[in-house]
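Progress report, Aim 2. The chain analyzed during this reporting quarter is listed below.
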Amino acid sequence: MKHFPPFLEQILPFAAYVYAKRKIDSELDDVLNNLKTSEPIEAAFNKYSNLGREELEALLKAEHARAEALTEKTFKFGASFATGLTVVSIAIVFAGSKLAGAGWKVAVLASMCPAFVFIAAGGMLGLSAIRVQRWFGSGASAAVERKGKTDTELVTLAARDLALQERANIINTMRNEAAFMSLRNGLLLLIIALSVALFGLSGLQLDVGFDFLSNDFGSDSA
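Predicted structure tokens for the chain:
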């Protein structure tokens, strides 16, 4: 996720992903609309143009398989982990509600609110993986585009589609990383909230114990 400082990328992975996705989608659209070619896509196209047609088609199938694997991984990980963290967060909210004093409750709530935001962002990224992804070099449109083309033209189309698919797969990789980092941040905040809740509950029990001992000693002295 370039164009974002490393520390900001770690703190706001969802925003960094959206920014990078828009940039790459714009690059892909420019190539398809014959407007301009970005430097990464042009470099990949020049490299792949030296390969044979069969080799290019095999590499393109490999990129398609990689895209499917990344999508499935993001969906399963994001959806399952987000569900688990949501259940844990509800338990922490319940524990926080038992705390005495507004200060403890505010402290737990201050940790829980951003945790919910990160968990929701990670879950949304995981669920977004089930959307139709961008594929190049397959389907009816690709078959029509290749009809009647010479071997040289077919090599050019295959090299272009491979360069585009490779670039599009970066989006899938970044989405997977952003989902992981969002859920990781949510988990860290949940740990903080849980620590605050447990500390508050232990302090409450300690206060109750001291009150009990004070009352007990007071009654004995009387």
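Confidence is low (pLDDT under 50) at residues 205-214. Residues 151-221 form the longest helix (71 residues). These observations will guide the mutagenesis work planned for the next reporting period.
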